[in-house]
Write a structure and sequence with these properties.
3-stranded antiparallel β-sheet, alpha+beta, about 25% helix, about 160 residues, binds zinc ion, globular, 4 helices
Amino acid sequence: MARTITNTSTQAQHDWPDDVFIQGGERGIVFGGPDGAYQTAFVEAFPESTFLRGEGSTLAEAEDKCWKQYQRHVSCDGTGQGHGPYERRQYTNGAGFCTRCGTWMNRVLPPLADEENHSSDRKPSLLDRAFYAEPDALVEIFDALAHADELPHGSTDQ
Ligand SMILES: [Zn+2]
């Protein structure tokens, strides 16, 4: 049975399981693109321990991309051994990426204890700061949201 993508009035085209929350937006804001923030349609899915996100010029395109990631995620997990091995990439807090399906997963690696020392000369991203609830980052996010109409559109007309 078709579900409505939360926060939109659009019905999902794909057969998402009931226990996987999905949400989306026609005009999401992405921070930290090469030219700063931009707008995009997006759909996000939240299976256990992770979240998947597709972006596109339309909600349908974004859902398609998110669905493909979900299929890859599920078939990887379906081997009976779970995901992994994992690689950290830029994460030092214990999150990592499954090297087989590419899914980002929370709490799959031991956090790097000396993160504090290494991170001092690296400017944390806006999203990092938001996750650690830095008030300034939240102000910056809400400011961008308030001026969303003025942001350039990503991926379509650059
Ligand atoms: Zn995997």
